[in-house]
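FAQ

Q: What does a record look like?
A: Structure on top, sequence underneath. For example:
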């Protein structure tokens, strides 16, 4: 029996067939099914033209109609249904200038990047595999459909996709494909950063990321990646860290900025990551530097918060090849007398009332001094005690 994700979509394939057209599952879902890997989403390819698909299904959206893709909504599920097409005129080494809708499955499969991604499966589970993708999967080989030189010149992103499949699957690049990767690596310069970022993030988080990072260097593809052109040594070092596979994508970005000793707001901006993400990596990088210098003081743990501290500690452990858990850090955090400024039994208003002084930077400094004293158990978190303590010493000066 086919996995549920296919079962759910079979009625759509049948509907298209009943209307007199062909429809198949294609691409990543068929590959992952044959590999026994989890299937993210199913893409459907069809001989029906976009307008014909729209007349078959009542609920649709034109999400990429110029490339032949219609979004179909059925039983609350969304499916991308794309008309068979050929592509031509890759004048700029990236997007085709022209797409032509066609009725032939095989011609559609031929435009796809690698043999393992160029298989189709019909509603009965019959596989169409004109380029022997199954054989390559068996041999764990990533091979372009047709001449690699030609395919990489048409769309240079395919080279980076090849590397990310190495990272995800641990396959080897077939010899010709691998040679072309090195020969044509310069062409990656024509590719939009956003497209590179998508593939690079997948590369960073794959089970075989060490292998993939090595290939990025050997092939010189790394020279075409934002902020990495001078960093072969740092990348190689990261690839060689025994614990590198334990890190999440976010942690990998932090590891990269730490390994290259670069400001995250400079480096991650080059990759056009969202500003919220950049801010977070910035905070983590600061905490990591303090953690390296002074260890986990109670104050540092308090200021970073548990989640951030654990992230930083995992990266620290990876850098130092320490196979230790973050449990003791969690214990230490649990034992903190306060976890948040809101828990303080005095407020900025209290401070201003008691001293009869106007607000200003001193309020924040004093509150920080109080926090520090409480965290280090010099005083309990108690309103009156804090007041008496303030009267006998000035924590903002004491700092
Ligand atoms: P994932 O599981 O990560 O989604 P995928 O193989 O499905 O991997 P997609 O980017 O979703 O990757 O693309 C779907 C299919 O479209 C691919 O399997 C491949 O057949 C084809 N494809 C995608 N990008 C390219 C490209 N740059 N050149 C040629 N074919 C491509
Ligand atoms: Mg996909």
């Amino acid at each position: 029996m086919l996995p549920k994700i296919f079962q759910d979509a079979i009625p759509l394939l049948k509907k298209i067939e009943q209307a007199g057209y062909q429809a198949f599952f294609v691409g990543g879902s068929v590959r992952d099914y044959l590999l026994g890997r989890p299937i993210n989403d199913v893409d459907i390819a069809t001989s029906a033209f976009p307008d014909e698909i729209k007349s078959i299904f009542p609920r649709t959206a034109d999400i990429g109609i110029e490339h032949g893709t219609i979004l179909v909504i059925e039983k609350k599920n969304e499916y991308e249904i794309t008309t068979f097409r050929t592509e031509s005129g890759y004048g700029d080494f990236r997007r085709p200038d022209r797409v032509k809708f066609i009725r032939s499955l095989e011609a559609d499969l031929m435009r796809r990047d690698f043999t393992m991604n160029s298989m189709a499966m019909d509603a009965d589970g019959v596989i169409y595999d004109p380029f022997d993708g199954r054989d390559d999967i068996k041999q764990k080989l990533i091979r372009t459909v047709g001449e690699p030189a030609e395919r990489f010149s048409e769309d240079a992103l395919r080279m980076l996709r090849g590397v990310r499949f190495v990272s995800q699957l641990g396959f080897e690049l077939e010899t010709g494909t691998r040679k072309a990767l090195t020969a044509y690596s310069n062409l990656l310069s024509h590719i939009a950063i956003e497209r590179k970022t998508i593939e690079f993030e997948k590369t960073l988080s794959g089970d075989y990321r060490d292998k993939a990072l090595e290939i990025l260097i050997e092939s010189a593809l790394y020279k075409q990646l934002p902020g990495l052109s001078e960093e072969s040594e740092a990348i190689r070092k990261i690839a060689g860290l025994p614990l590198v596979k334990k890190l999440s994508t976010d942690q990998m970005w932090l590891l990269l900025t730490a390994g290259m000793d670069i400001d995250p707001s400079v480096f991650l901006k080059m990759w056009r990551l969202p500003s919220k993400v950049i801010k977070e990596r910035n905070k983590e990088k600061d905490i990591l530097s303090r953690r390296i210098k002074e260890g986990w003081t109670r104050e540092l743990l308090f200021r970073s918060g548990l989640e951030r501290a654990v992230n930083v500690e995992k990266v620290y452990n990876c850098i130092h090849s320490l196979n230790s858990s973050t449990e003791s850090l969690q214990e230490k955090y649990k034992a903190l007398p306060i976890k948040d400024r809101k828990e303080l039994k005095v407020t900025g208003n209290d401070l201003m009332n008691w001293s009869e002084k106007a607000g200003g930077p001193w309020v924040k400094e004093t509150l920080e001094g109080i926090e520090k004293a409480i965290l280090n158990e010099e005083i309990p978190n108690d309103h009156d005690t804090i007041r008496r303590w303030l009267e006998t010493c000035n924590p903002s000066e004491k700092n």
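Q: Is there anything notable about this one?
A: The chain has four domains: 1-132, 140-240, 243-336, 342-398.
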